[in-house]
TrEMBL record:
Main localization (coarse): membrane
Topology within the bilayer: Multi-pass membrane protein
PANTHER family: OLIGOPEPTIDE TRANSPORTER-RELATED
UniProt subcellular location: Endosome membrane; Lysosome membrane
Protein name listed in UniProt: Solute carrier family 15 member 3
Region named Disordered: 1-20
Length: 575
């Protein structure tokens, strides 16, 4: 039976025959998946080599400063998700929120290619200040003056706007796509989320294979122009598919009601002031009051209780996100200090004149190691959807979403442990003065003779952890929320993953202070005097402790939802 139409809801404009509804619903879902693939291609095109871009001679940021900026951008792209969701719920609706977010995305992404060439950089940032000349440092332990970050206000403002646009697309396009296939049944919605995640990683593959190679070996100007083109194409496809979309009007947000309820429970004085302002309404029972648009007070209380149960589960997943986002920041920085082989041997006989003019060889982009993570997801998601889950379900061994999330946290722990062991081995070569000089882009790195391929296990483990932690986490946030709060709780889920990225950035900043493990001389971004291995082991310890806490909280949650409360009215209304 089709879902009831909400007031102001617009159904597809195109005519449909007997088989039309399913065909047009699938076409609308496919359009959403294509838009998501292109948006993610643009996002990874920006994020994959952001550390290398800021660490280049264009800006001369140190490795720690570039990693911190990358973590801030990644965190903002998740942390600001509730903002876009709130605007869609209250003012815009999901369709207009996605369209306007893609337009902001298009404008903000143009800042990076604009700063990739000298004239554009000087227009936005001014001239780069010259390094001050001074006497040499008399002793190895003397403090060094840290130069101010060139173009930091412009770049951080652009990255935050880009993060806002990406987070708004993320929070609204997910639910908007689910709206398109909702009439096809619950199983269609579940499978949509699987293929939505698959589209994310397909976009990442296209971006990493092409964009990362161009950025590292040819030109950051061309490399950062491609994401702008991807966003422009996504915007065009989204507008072109408008006639087949189901669009729903803004229905209001429960954020204000939740905040009022929480403040009244925490601060009885606020409740007394409210009663003093409305004494007549205070004497009436909820059923006797005049009907108001939006959820009733009873629904507010029930939804608030659900939020109190779900929130601790999602909060204990934050340290996992701290580990997860290392693959786009410190893992990249570590890879730049391992030996990266050339794709072509030096001056081979069959190399073209153009290649020889550019230096004779190309190095493998360090960001390509992210493909190990992405390929695992691309292979395992269809395998899991069509084979593993069905087999486990037939044998009645299919684990719950919370059990999968705990397993994912274990694989994340294993990934950061492997990264720490590799960093110890890298530093062993460095301390014995066994280094190789390699030029990546315009920067010369003193790398250990260990091959960068040794990073593959840590990327593979992160990919497996993503299958078990991230996708079930998305399903948990969507399925356990009451229907009237699905958008809000999905926004909270993405927001908390952004909190994990920002906590990782804060930890890097703290450990980069004098005396910290990541404090080392600013020798053109090299990290050979830092103890990043201890940073990885610290993350592993945090992940291990919170994984145990997660198992305890998840166990309590499952016991509570299996009790009498699970048969209440608000539980039956879950999507």
């Amino acid at each position: 039976m089709p879902a009831p139409r909400a007031l102001g809801e617009r159904r597809p404009l195109l005519p449909r025959g007997t088989r039309g509804p399913r065909r047009w619903r699938r076409a609308a879902g496919a359009a959403v998946l294509l838009v998501e693939m292109l948006e993610r291609a643009a996002f990874f095109g920006v994020a994959a080599n952001l550390v290398l871009y800021l660490n280049s001679t264009n800006f001369n940021w140190t490795g720690e400063q570039a990693s911190r900026a990358a973590l801030v951008f990644l965190g903002a792209s998740y942390l600001l998700a509730p903002v876009g969701g709130w605007l869609a719920d209250v003012y815009l609706g999901r369709y207009r929120a996605v369209a306007l977010s893609l337009l902001l995305y298009l404008v903000a992404s143009g800042l990076l290619p604009a700063t990739a060439f000298p004239d554009g950089r000087s227009s936005f940032c001014g001239e780069m200040p010259a390094s001050p000349l001074g006497p040499a440092c008399p002793s190895p332990g003397c403090p060094r003056a840290s130069p101010s970050l060139y173009c930091a206000p412009v770049l951080y403002a652009g990255l935050l706007l880009l993060g806002l646009a990406a987070s708004s697309v993320r929070s609204n396009l997910t639910s908007f796509g689910a709206d398109q296939v909702m009439d096809l049944g619950r199983d269609a919605t579940r499978r949509f989320f699987n293929w939505f995640y698959w589209s994310i990683n397909l976009g990442a593959v296209l971006s990493l294979l092409v964009v990362a190679f161009i950025q590292q070996n040819i030109s950051f100007l061309l490399g950062y122009s491609i994401p702008v083109g991807c966003v422009g194409l996504a915007f065009f496809i989204f507008l072109f598919a408008t006639p087949i979309f189901i669009t729903k009007p803004p229905m209001g947000s429960q954020v204000s009601s939740m905040l009022k309820l929480a403040l009244q429970n925490c601060c009885p004085r606020l409740r007394q002031r409210h009663l003093a302002r409305d004494p007549q309404g205070a004497r009436l029972w909820p059923d006797q009051r005049s009907p108001q648009p939006g959820p009733s007070p009873q629904e507010d209380i029930a939804n608030f209780q659900v939020l109190l149960k779900i929130l601790p589960v999602m909060v204990t997943l934050v340290p996992y996100w701290m580990v997860y986002f290392q693959m786009q920041s410190t893992y990249v920085l570590q890879g730049l200090h391992l030996h990266i082989p050339n794709i072509f041997p030096a001056n081979p006989a069959n190399i073209s004149t153009a290649l020889r003019a550019q230096g004779g060889n190309y190095t493998i982009p360090e960001a390509w190691l992210l493909l190990a993570n992405v390929v695992v997801v691309l292979i395992l998601v269809p395998l899991k959807d069509h084979l593993i889950d069905r087999l486990l379900l037939r044998c009645k061994l299919l684990p719950s979403a919370l059990q999968k999330m705990a397993l994912g946290m274990f694989f994340g722990f294993a990934s950061v442990i492997v990264a720490g062991v590799l960093e110890m081995e890298r530093l062993h070569y460095i301390h014995h003065n066994e280094t190789v000089s390699q030029q990546i882009g315009e920067v010369l790195y003193n790398a250990a003779p260990l091959s960068v391929w040794w990073q593959i296990p840590q990327y593979l483990l992160i990919g497996v952890s993503e299958i078990f932690a991230s996708i079930p986490g998305l399903e948990f946030a969507y399925s356990e929320a009451p229907r009237s709060m699905q958008g809000a709780i999905m926004g909270i889920f993405f927001c908390l993953s952004g909190v994990g990225s920002l906590l990782g950035s804060s930890l890097v900043a703290l450990l980069s202070l004098p005396g910290g493990w990541l404090h080392c001389p600013k020798d053109f971004g090299n990290i050979n005097n830092c103890r990043m291995d201890l940073y990885f082991f610290l993350l592993a310890g945090i992940q291990a402790v919170t994984a145990l806490l997660f198992i305890w909280i998840a166990g309590r949650y499952e016991r509570a939802t299996q009790g009498p409360a699970s048969h209440s009215g608000f539980s039956r209304d879950r999507g």
